[in-house]
Specification:
338 residues; mainly alpha; 0% strand; single chain
Length: 338
């Protein structure tokens, strides 16, 4: 048995076969080899060798597969399905192996969350935290353009009607993405940087990683904290006035020098940011937006946003919303602290 509510290891193997084939196709690997390795992944658990020496699970599967004439990539994937086994461990060495390792972990996460057995405190009998970090490491360090939520949806669907938790997909996705905090803290990334990116609900690990590194670089700039404070101020003003949807700025109402200057710079930045986002170059986005600091400071020093004139007030709020949305293309900069 894999788990009494979730069925046998044979059923798990069929799900891994299905999920691994999908992942392999998405990353340009041999989907037939990935599917075959997924199907055979757990067979060595039934042998006397592995029953006697559990630590050789996967390793023995590799040699049995080679002995039976399976392709080398299939045998290697069977051996590497459990990687990374712990923090700092090596990753699977090929795309086929990575597809099988991801499929195994995603199946476990979907299944255990699907029956409501969420980890509590130090109790994590199915090693879901390790599985989640393994998923994030494989995707980010091998540079795969994969979406965690999409992958978990496939894993959830593979269970059919076995799952009882109606929030499985949301629960499992949130759990996996929350592991980014522990993973990056171990690498010396500050908590507020991780929180700034997490606020954008990014579910592609490689995209998340690119944003984290961009925000970390941005925070080191001299303009960063002033812009973070300005973003927080802007966010509060917009929230108090229930401004969340884009409103066009009326240029004819920009009566003051400082608001015209900010509008012109925002318009220029929109072009620069849009171009940088086509390649997910978030470092360029934030370093370019850092040049807005003088115009933002001048605006707040000289302009009364909450003017008694409703038209002027709404126009200035629209301008601030454009400023806020520019920064939110990468992260919620207002979260950053000293």
């Amino acid at each position: 048995m894999f788990q009494k509510q979730l069925g046998t290891l044979a059923e798990k193997a069929h799900r891994i076969e299905q999920i691994a084939a999908h992942i392999a196709q998405a990353i340009g690997a041999n989907s037939e080899h990935a599917a075959r390795a997924g199907l055979l992944a757990k067979t060595d658990l039934m042998t006397e060798m592995v029953m006697e020496f559990p630590d050789v699970q996967g390793v023995m599967g590799k040699y049995y597969a080679l002995h039976d004439g399976e392709p080398e990539s299939v045998a290697k994937a069977i051996a590497e399905q459990y990687m990374p086994r712990q923090s700092g461990d090596s990753l699977p060495s090929s795309d086929v192996s990575s597809a099988v390792a991801l499929a195994d972990k995603l199946d476990t996460l979907a299944g255990i969350f699907g029956i409501g057995m969420l980890p509590k405190g130090d109790k994590d009998p199915f090693a879901l935290r390790r599985a989640a970090i393994g998923v994030l490491r494989i995707i980010t360090e091998r540079g795969y353009d994969l979406d965690v939520r999409d992958l978990l949806k496939i894993a959830v669907d593979a269970y059919g009607d076995k799952l009882t938790n109606t929030d499985t997909l949301d629960n499992a996705t949130d759990f996996v993405l929350a592991r980014f905090r522990a993973m990056y803290q171990d690498r010396g990334i500050e908590t507020d940087v991780i929180q700034a990116v997490s606020a954008r609900n990014v579910s592609k690990p490689t995209d998340f990683a690119a944003r984290v590194h961009a925000v970390a670089s941005f925070k080191a700039l001299p303009q960063a904290l002033a812009l973070a404070a300005a973003n927080k101020r802007v966010a509060n003003i917009l929230a108090k006035n229930n401004i969340s949807h884009a409103i066009d700025v009326n240029e004819t109402l920009l009566n003051e020098t400082q608001e015209r200057e900010l509008f012109e710079q925002i318009t220029q930045q929109q072009t620069t940011v849009s171009a940088a986002l086509t390649t997910n170059n978030y470092t360029t986005v934030l370093s370019s937006l850092a040049t807005l600091q003088p115009a933002v400071d001048a605006f707040f020093d000289n302009i009364m946003v909450m003017s008694d004139d409703n038209a002027l007030r709404q126009n200035r709020l629209a301008l601030l919303l454009q400023l806020r949305q520019l920064f939110l293309t990468t992260a919620d900069i207002s979260v950053l602290t000293n």
